[in-house]
Amino acid sequence: xxxxxxxxxxxxxxxxxxxxxxxxxxxxxxxxxxxxxxxxxxxxxxxxxxxxxxxxxxxxxxxxxxxxxxxxxxxxxxxxxxxxxxxxxxxxxxxxxxxxxxx
Length: 103
Description:
Layout: H1 2-17, E1 24-28, E2 32-39, H2 49-62, E3 66-82, E4 88-102
Antiparallel strand pairs: 1-2, 2-4, 3-4
């Protein structure tokens, strides 16, 4: 039973690591860039835990002096995840983008 429990725990960790990637700097320019992050449509983009990570990436790039130029829904992605009993589910991930400029 212990071996089975470890296998299930490892599978959960590996499956979870492939889910939402978190905030990413996807475009960098001399004066700013674009950061995207996943969000749950039920909760919205402003309360996503990844928004804080996105703003942290912007602050790392610019310090505390930056302006958000534009933000909105970015191209998401779909992926297939294995479910219980061999069934596969298609998961649609929504992403939010923030375009910023450093001051």
